[in-house]
Amino acid sequence: MEKNNWTDHLMKNTPTIAESIAKQLEEMIAGGALKPGERLPSERILAERLGVSRPSLREGKQILTSKGLLTSRQGGGTYIQNNLNSGLTDPLMDLLKERPEFRYDILEVRHALDSQAAYYAAHRATESDKENIVNAFNDMVKLQKANGDPVASAEADTNFHLSITKASHNMALLHISRSLFSVLQSSIEKNLDKLYSVPKSGTKLTDQHKALMDAILAGDANEAKLAAQSHMVYVEESMHDIYKEQERHERFLRHASILASK
Questions:
Q1: What is the phi/psi pair of residue 188, to 5°?
Q2: Please, which residues bridge with residue 71 across strands?
Q3: Within 10 A of 27 (CB to CB), how many other CB atoms are there?
Q4: Domain check: are 72 and 109 in the same one?
Q5: Are 91 and 53 members of one domain?
Q6: Residue pLDDT, tens place only, 181-201
Q7: How many Å is the maximal CA-CA distance in the chain?
Q8: 69: domain CATH number?
Q9: 99 and 76, same structural domain?
Q10: For residue 34, which phi and psi values (nearest 5 degrees)?
Q11: Cα–Cα distance measured from residue 120 to residue 169, given in angstroms and rounded to the nearest whole number
């Protein structure tokens, strides 16, 4: 290859500054540092953080806008698209609205995902990851001990499990899990607020979560996987018992209503 041709080849394959900026932002989105619906920092602040000029940053943002990853809103500001997972979430949401029993299918999927996340988190968690897991655990325990809003406790439970999935450093696993949690947020709240309302259930959940956390902090991957599996088995069995009792109660009320109308 002649010198001029080789130079042209290198130039064509060398990313521009804007493309490099776009790639950095893409990695931040993929890694969860920038979340769907979140507003980007101002151009001045973001340009300073990335060490680039504001015109180059604008070009990089435009690349991601054309890909559908960023959007501008009326009133100012650039945001991460809020529907990045719509291809996965919309069909599941429709199914859940139509058939409540699909909650058990999702619990089964979580059983597999959470155990794998725990396994990899025990292998790969950094000190920062471990600190995030401990903080999420402490927040969850604080809410549980306060005996306050069970929905808030359920959300804290979700955040704890997501902190472990983030520590797995498996981006595919993180996005799938985050998508499921996003789709099922209302369902999770309905499920777990019932679970947290069962006497002594909160204590059992806390003990299980602590065993899971301790195994990850100790770097024991097999124990972490077993702890996650045991936890999900408990959740599945408890939810089955709760809804079975609820259905029995609803049948009783329905029959009582029929008899009273005679």
A1: -60, -45
A2: 79
A3: 12
A4: no
A5: no
A6: 766 555 555 556 666 556 566
A7: 98
A8: 1.10.10.10
A9: no
A10: -115, 125
A11: 8
Sequence-ordered alpha helix ranges (H) in the chain = 3-13, 17-30, 43-50, 54-66, 86-98, 102-124, 127-146, 150-167, 171-183, 185-197, 201-217, 221-260
Q: Is 236 helix (H, G, I), strand (E, B) or coil?
A: helix
User: In the listed set 20, 52, 80, which residue is the last one of a domain according to the structure?
Assistant: 80
Residues 68 and 101 in one domain: no
Residue-wise pLDDT tens digits, 132-164: 999 999 998 998 777 767 677 778 888 899 999
Tokens describing residue 198: 């069962």
Written as one letter, the residue type at 206 is T
Q: Is the pTM of this model over 0.85?
A: no
Output the six-digit token pair for 140.
């969850």
Instruction: Please tell me whether residues 76 and 91 are part of one structural domain.
Output: no
User: In the chain, how many domains are there?
Assistant: 2
Query: Domain range holding 182?
Result: 86-260
| 180 contact partners, CB below 8 Å, separation of at least 6 | 92, 106, 109, 110, 113
The structure tokens listed for 82 are: 């809020």
